[in-house]
Here is the input.
Amino acid sequence: MRRTGIASILAGVLVFASGCATTSTRQSFVRTGDPIIDGKAAIEHGPEKDRVLWQYRTGLAAMRRSNYEEAERFFDDALLRVGSVLGGGPDKSAKKSRGYFSEEAKKTFLGEPYERVMAYFYRGILYWMDGEPDNARACFRNAQIQDSDTDNREYSNDWVLMDYLDGFVTAKYFGGDGSDARERADESFKLGELPPYSKNANTMVFLEFGKGPMKYATGEYGEELRIRPGKSAVQGAWLKVANQAVRIAPYDDVNYQATTRGGRVMDHILANKAVFKSATDDFGTAAIIGGAVVASHSRNAEVGLGLVAAGILSKVIAGATTPDADTRAWENLPGYISFTALELPPGPHTATVEFTDAAGNVMPSLTKTIHFTVSAGDDAVLFASDRNT
Here is the structure.
C-alpha cells in the first residue's frame, strides 16, 4: 500500500510536469532587410500575438517613405485591436498571461503606454493629411488617455504635443480657444514657451528625430521590465521655406515618456510571479531534503517519501512559473517629436529640413527636401524624419 501510494504521487508529479511542457507554433519568414517587405511578411506569417507590434513598426516605416495610405491601413488595424482589447474585448492570450504559468511575451502585444501614444499620434497626423482635423484631434485625445491613469488618478498625461495639438485644432477649426489643452501643454513643457496658436496657419510640419527607447529585463528571474533610452546626435532642426528659417526644438522626449508616468520614474516589475517562483522553489528544496532525512528512518519512510514527492512537485511548479518581463518593443520609434505651423502663400514650395546636433551644428547627411503645394482654402500637412528614405 505504501509503495502504491507513493508511486501514485510520483506519477501525478510526472503527469503535471508533462502538462506544463509547451510546443512552439511560431512560423518563420525570410528577412530581406527591407522594413516594409519584412514587416508585411511578419504580419502575414508571424505569430498572431505579435501582429500589432509589426503593424506599428511597418506603419511608421511606410510613413518615412511617404507611403501614407499604406501606413493608414497598418495603424488602423493595430489601433482597432488595441481598442478592442483595452475596451474589454475578448483576448484569451492577455488573460492567460496574467496567470503564473504563462509568459508575458505570449500575450497579444499592445505596447506600453508610450508606444500606444505614438501609434495614435501618427494616425492623427495621417488624418490631418487627409483633411480630417476632427479625427486627428480625436487621435491626439486618445493618445492622452493612453498615458493617464483614469481609474486611480495616480498620474496624468504629460505629453506636450498631444495637448498642444488638441488645443490647436480646437482653436483653428472649431471656434474654441483651446485654452484648457494649451494650459496643460504649457505646464508640461520644460524648454521655454510654446508658440501661440495661429488660426491663419496653412502649413503644418511634423518632425521626428533621434533614436527611441528599447526594453530589457533584469532581476533574478528576468521579471523586471526596464527601459534603455536611445542615444542620438540629432537634437533639433532648422526648417527653411519661403525665405523663412524656423528653429525647431523637441516638444516631447519619447525616451523620457517611456521611463516615466506623469513625470514619475517607472520601472515595471512583475513582482508577484517572481515571489511565487522563489517561494515554491525554496519550499521544494526544503521538502526534498527534509523528506530524505525522514525517509532514512524506516518507521517514517512513507512520510519522508511523501515530503520528497511534495518537494518535487513544488520544484516542477516553480520551474513552470514564467515571470519573464515582456521585452518586445517598437524599436524604430524616434527619440523626439516636434511641430510647427506656418502661413505661406498659395502655390508650390520647397522646404528644407536641416537636422542639427546638441551644439546646433547642421548634419548635412541628414538634410531632407520636401516639395509641396499650398492650395487656397486647404492646409498642407508635412512629415519629416531624420530617417526618411
Q: What stands out?
A: Residues 94 and 107 are 5 Å apart (CA to CA). The two ends are 76 Å apart (CA to CA). The chain has a mean pLDDT of 81.
